[in-house]
Amino acid sequence: SPPETALLPATPEAIGLAKRTVAVMKQNIAVALITVEAVTNAVKHGQATSVNLFLQVEAQAYDLVILDDGQ
User: Fold this and answer.
1) Are 60 and 52 in contact (CB under 8 A)?
2) Which pTM was predicted?
3) Cα distance between residue 41 and residue 38, in whole Å
4) How many helices (H) and strands (E) does the chain have?
5) CA 43, CA 23: separation in Å to the nearest integer?
6) β-pair partners for 52
7) How far apart (Å, rounded) are the C-alpha atoms in residues 61 and 55?
8) Sign of CA dihedral 71, 35, 53, 49
9) What is the model's pLDDT at position 9?
10) Of 33, 34, 36, 44, which is closest to residue 70 (Cα–Cα)?
11) Taking the CA atoms of the chain, what radius of gyration do you get in angstroms?
12) Within 10 Å of residue 42's Cβ, how many Cβ atoms?
């Protein structure tokens, strides 16, 4: 038998929460992709052997610092 699912009523509040959740997920994916690209570039083009990442997440912003020992 198929698994049971719980459906929530499509209230304006629930729809708003879903939209905000999706927006945050998209932001998190973007930060992850930017981070991967930066690390890849540091190693590939800068010949870095060490890369340090510092990520601070605040209510309205991400602060990402990437330090490497490349050229």
Assistant:
1) no
2) 0.75
3) 5
4) 1, 2
5) 31
6) 67
7) 11
8) negative
9) 84
10) 44
11) 19
12) 20
Cα separation, 54 vs 69, in Å, equals 15
Question: Residue type for 27, please?
Answer: Q
Which residues lie closer than 8 Å to 18 by C-beta, 6 or more apart?
none
Rounded distance, CA 32 to CA 57, Å? 13
pLDDT at 7: 78
Question: How confident is the model over 50-66, as pLDDT tens digits?
Answer: 999 999 998 888 999 99
- Angle, CA 27 vertex, CA 8 and CA 69 arms, to 5°: 150
Tokens representing 71 are 């050229």
Overall average pLDDT of the 8-23 stretch: 90
Q: 24-50: per-residue pLDDT in tens?
A: 999 999 999 999 999 999 999 999 999
